Amino acid sequence: MQLLGSTTSPFARRLRLYLLEKEYEFVDLDIFSIEGRHTLTKNNPVQKIPALIDDDFCLYDSRIIYRYLAEKYDETKLTWPQENLLTLIDAANDAFINLLLLSRSQLDSSEDRLFYNLQHERIEQVLAALEKKAAKGEFTQWNYPAICLYCLLDWIVFRELYILDRYTNLMSFKSAALNQKGIKETAPF
Ligand SMILES: N[C@@H](CCC(=O)N[C@@H](CS)C(=O)NCC(=O)O)C(=O)O
Questions:
Q1: β-strands 57-60, 2-5: how paired?
Q2: What is the pTM of this model?
Q3: For residues 60 and 53, is the Cβ–Cβ distance under 8 A?
Q4: What ligand 1 atom has the least distance to the C-alpha of 60?
Q5: Pocket of ligand 1 (CB under 6 A)
Q6: Tell me: the pLDDT tens digits for 148-184?
Q7: Residue among 167, 153, 172, 16 nearest 96 (CA)
Q8: Fewer Cβ close by (within 10 Å): the C or N end of the chain?
Q9: To the nearest whole percent, how much of the chain has pLDDT over 70?
């Protein structure tokens, strides 16, 4: 089994943490280089990481990969409230990736434009919702949604995309998670 990803991708990191004690190969790609793009496109026409190759079959999208792995390893399915947590985390992650790609395209996302405003608004709404959920103790167990939240928060800090300080429950969650297995080994660089 091979996981196509990169050392910086928060979507790949969640699966690297989930797969920590499983047998698999991590393929570190630079998806914007000619070679990395070729390997990626050959396996995943969506051209995003992560992708999981198991025998001749390639799965696209971290959410689907997680479902596939959870079934393969006979683990209990995520509950509907946990699925909702993933939707919140993914929505913030996608919006931050959009902002990063805009900045790499030399576009100023602080301008008053519909697409930019939607990303900023979504980020505010979702971070506030996640902060409330963290305050209610919904991330106290180190399970898959908690792994995904940690990867998002750590990546936001790594990319210097947002000051998270006012989200005190999210920051406490992040500090507490530092002791979890694999956090240091999978840190973005
Ligand atoms: N919904 C996808 C999102 C994956 C994603 O956005 N990956 C980023 C890297 S972290 C990517 O490949 N971006 C390239 C692009 O948008 O062209 C998932 O959960 O796997």
A1: unpaired
A2: 0.97
A3: no
A4: 20
A5: 9-11, 31, 47-50, 61-63, 90, 97
A6: 999 999 999 999 999 999 999 999 999 999 999 999 9
A7: 153
A8: C
A9: 100
CB 77 within 8 A of CB 84: no
Determine phi and psi for 30, rounding to 5 degrees.
-95, 100
For the packed helices 10-18 and 62-72, what is the interaxial angle rounded to 10 degrees? 10
Number of residues that this document lists for the chain: 189
The answer to whether the beta carbons of residues 91 and 83 sit under 8 Å apart is no
CA distance 132 to 84: 14
Using alpha carbons only, what angle is made at residue 168 by residues 165 and 173, rounded to the nearest 5 degrees? 110
pLDDT in tens, 44-91: 999 999 999 999 899 999 999 999 999 999 999 999 999 999 999 999
Percent of the chain with pLDDT over 90: 99
CB 40 within 8 A of CB 49: yes
Residue to mutate, 7, 97, 98, ligand 1, most ligand atoms under 8 Å from C-beta: 97
